[in-house]
Write a structure and sequence with these properties.
Largest sheet: 8 strands, mixed
Order of helices and strands: HEEEEHEEEEEE
Strand content: over 45%
Number of helices: 2
Shape: elongated
Radius of gyration: 23 Å
Distance between the termini: 64 Å
Length: about 180
């Protein structure tokens, strides 16, 4: 009888901490996803427009993934479009937690751009988006990337009119390691 109570107590002593750790992990997973969504929606400068379909965060792997991404960069002063990019997905792998949480550096082992279609505009393509707001540089973080990979990309430089193609490259597969 005493042996049975001891076994039951040991099971509870092991089960409760495991359950609490799993609960803490689930809470941290949702908080991390909310933090990254807030970062992408609120902290990006006004001259950069980013939209995406789905955000996936995995704390165990240290990865962040965005699907169906559209990125547009405007000239800061003139508020005209300088570059546009559509991607099937962006995968950020190998996040260094310690420096991201306690330092001012965000480290990634790899950033992979899947099927980017990039257009760079040489001339002035008017897209007026109103006033420029100041960016708070006191909260600025440094981004460190060990490897940048582009998979099946397309890059186009357009001339003064959107009809003129100055340079175009398709099926671009590229990997840069530091």
């Amino acid at each position: 009888m005493a042996d049975r109570k001891l076994k039951k107590r040991i099971v509870w002593i092991i089960t409760i901490p495991i359950f609490l750790m799993l609960l803490l992990f689930v809470i941290l997973q949702f908080r991390a996803k909310g933090y990254i969504e807030n970062l992408l929606n609120q902290k990006i400068p006004d001259h950069i427009h980013l939209t995406y379909g789905q955000l996936e965060v995995n704390l165990i792997k240290g990865s962040v993934g965005l699907t169906d991404v559209v990125l547009e960069i405007l000239d800061k002063e003139a508020r005209i479009s300088k570059m546009g990019m559509r991607l099937e997905a962006i995968d950020l792998n190998g996040l260094g937690y310690y420096q991201a949480l306690f330092g001012n550096t965000i480290n990634f082992r790899e950033i992979r751009l899947l099927r980017p279609n990039t257009e760079y505009y040489q001339g002035g393509h008017g897209v007026d988006n109103g006033e420029v707001t100041e960016y708070d540089s006191t909260t600025e973080k440094i981004l460190s990337v060990a490897q940048l990979s582009i998979v099946d990309g397309k890059f186009t430089i357009l001339g003064k009119s959107r009809d003129t193609v100055v340079f175009s490259m398709e099926n671009l597969n590229f990997s840069l390691k530091t």
